[in-house]
Design a protein that fits this description.
293 residues; 81% helix; 0% strand; mainly alpha; 13 helices; Na+/H+ antiporter like fold
């Protein structure tokens, strides 16, 4: 299982490596690619997938509930960990709580389980996105303020998810040419996101923090154990159980490194978490699949 999961990850790893090598030779900004991906490509993918999803209401409810519970438990336990090690929660906590269920999780699940698995991780990721672009921004900016709520309302990802659910639940049919166009645009999101991640790794400055090792353990081991707790509480089985467990222990979300820059905050700790956890994902992700079996 571990070997097969590694080969399923291989296209992702090659795309990340391609971005890294390209940035080594040519000058390119990862933030521009991330903006295009998050504001154009991912919303197209999310709206098309959610609006066209054949998933049952039970599966949707299970994934949304598990994602929300995992995020809430991670927020509480992550806050306790940050207080224990004496790090700044504004720069550390988001990287502990939010996993890369979008840029990494979406292509990973599509390769592993096809469109059904991808649709489930999309729903999981959207709940994470709601928390990240609300509570996450509040943490980074230091509290409740107008800028935080305006950023949430201006997020195309959030609106794509909301509209996708409205179209799905109301049975509105999207004309075939428009649906095909959305699918065509959205298909570019996953590979471009992986390339952007590789470019961001190339431009990250490596600095050592004494608590980094413990934070990585928290992200992987703590995330998986919290995922196990949630699937046990909710009684999840089958595909939803596997996706929830693997998603909970994914590497840190790339946005946890980029969002601080948008709000003029230090992002070195988060960048290290993103880079190292992504590299370790070569081992931890196949292991998560094996343990979830």
């Amino acid at each position: 299982m571990i070997i097969s999961s590694f080969f399923q990850m291989l296209p992702i790893l090659i795309s990340i490596a391609a971005g890294y090598l390209y940035a080594h030779r040519f000058e390119v900004e990862a933030t521009s690619l991330v903006t295009v991906t998050s504001d154009l490509l991912l919303p197209a993918l999310i709206f098309h997938s959610v609006s066209q999803s054949p998933l049952s209401s039970q599966a949707l409810g299970e994934v949304l509930t598990s994602s929300a519970l995992i995020c809430l438990i991670l927020l509480v336990t992550g806050w306790l960990w940050v207080r224990l090690v004496g790090e700044n929660p504004r720069s550390v906590l988001p990287a502990l709580v939010f996993m890369n269920s979008g840029f990494l999780g979406i292509p990973l699940m599509k390769l592993w389980g096809g469109n059904e698995a991808m649709n489930l991780i999309l729903i999981f990721d959207q709940m994470q996105g709601i928390f990240m672009f609300s509570i996450g921004i509040l943490i980074i900016t230091g509290g409740f303020n107008k800028k935080s709520f305006v950023s949430l309302l201006h997020s195309p990802i959030i609106w794509a998810m909301v509209l996708g659910f409205i179209f799905n639940l109301s049975g509105i049919t999207i004309p075939a040419p428009i649906a095909t166009s959305l699918f065509f645009v959205g298909e570019a999101a996953s590979p471009l996101a992986c390339v952007a991640l590789g470019i961001s790794i190339r431009h990250t400055r490596f600095t050592f923090h004494k608590s980094l090792f413990g934070s990585l353990l928290f992200r992987f081991v703590g995330g998986w154990l919290i995922g196990l707790l949630v699937v046990s509480i909710l009684g999840l089985t089958g595909l939803v159980r596997t996706i929830t467990l693997v998603a909970a222990a994914l590497p840190s979300a790339m946005f946890t490194s980029i969002l601080p820059l948008r709000y003029e905050q230090d992002n070195q700790y988060a960048s290290m978490m993103v880079v190292i956890s992504t590299l370790l994902g070569v081992v931890t992700i196949p292991l998560s699949f094996a343990l979830a079996a």
